[in-house]
Amino acid sequence: MLWNSPKLFPVKKQEPLNWGPWWRMMVFVIIAILIAVTLSWYISQDLRFVFYGAVCIGVIFAIFILFAGWLFFRYGVEAEQGELVRARNNEMENQFENWASQSINIMDASFIFPPSVPISMGCPFDVNGNVPLLLPSTDGYLRLFEDLLAPLRVNLLARGIAQPLRVYFPQDTKDFIWQQFLHVWKSIGLSAQQLSCFFELKNSFAEQVDEWLSEENLDDVLVMVWQFNDANDAGYYTEGAIAWLLSSSSEVSKNKIFRPMLTNFSNVDEDIPKFLRYQKPTKDIGTIWYNDADGPIKDKLLIAYSQAQDNRIKSDVSVMPEQNFVTHWLGKAVLSVDWFSITLAMKNAGFQKKSQIIVLKKDNSALLSTITPTIS
């Protein structure tokens, strides 16, 4: 989703009162009066000029005191107004920061990837090129659901039978696939009492997460996404499948996924600093995952991140995040690349114990998303 950050009220810079010109003007006027009185008395020998001079000097002092009082009053009013504006700006920024830093708890996740996809974080691996990576064999949806649900079974059982659960499948999923899912669900000892139907995921990952975050009381969610090539286009995209169990309870989560941002290329210079400023976990990034090696977005993100580190030692390169090119891991993963790459980022977040930033380009827009480990 596009982020509409608050428009802050301008705060007028308040300069300190400069009394120098006014003091000099008053002294100059008094000296001029004294000279005029002295010359008038010297010529006329009339003491009334001395009285007139004293009155004039007194009036000058009175005017100066009144003017000084008015300047102090105006200065105080402007200072108070400035504090009120700054307080209002801070309130709006805090509200937007809280909105931008909303997250969903990921209780557990499972995945099925081709053997050439590296899943052991922190270990050397052979990088993949921009070619489709295929699963050894596709044994149908029954085997798919068995492999995805088995690692989640303990956490699914721990939820309780009566607790609502929503199941999300990709768009255009046929009803027979749902029936096979229910068969596997029951076969591993899970109750289908709360499962009446499945929901279809939105085409946009950002819009889907934003929809979940907009719900006040989000039910537990099971997300299942798969990519298999049809017989007509075998080998066109990388194959694989993932399952996420999202929970409303933060006590049992392994990771958190934060509100994503969609940005257009025309707004990227403005949106990237906004993303780093308002989303709290981006203050310490472990790895940036990106799918556009030649595009400017990842580089601009690194520059903005470096500029935001006010206390960073310039010679200490260890504080800069690592960079993972998604193609080296997933090959030609175009469809479902967001779900697949974020799943790998979850695993890496648990290894690094640091935030992961996902930067995925699609057409003329880009997705920015943050994953953090839940450190107990």
Task: Give a nutshell description of this structure.
By secondary structure, this protein is α/β, with parallel strands linked by helices. 43% of the residues lie in helices and 18% in strands.
Give a description of the structure.
- The relative contact order is 0.14.
- The chain folds into 2 domains: 19-98; 102-373, Peroxisomal Thiolase, Chain A, domain 1, CATH 3.40.47.
- The protein is of the alpha/beta class and 376 residues long.
- It is built from 10 helices and 11 strands.
- It has helices at 20-44, 48-100, 141-149, 153-158, 175-187, 205-214, 268-278, 297-308, 326-330, 337-352; strands at 103-112, 165-169, 199-200, 220-227, 240-247, 255-258, 261-264, 285-290, 322-325, 355-362, 365-373.
- Strands 1, 2, 3, 4, 5, 6, 7, 8, 9, 10 and 11 form an 11-stranded mixed beta sheet that branches.
- The mean pLDDT is 86.
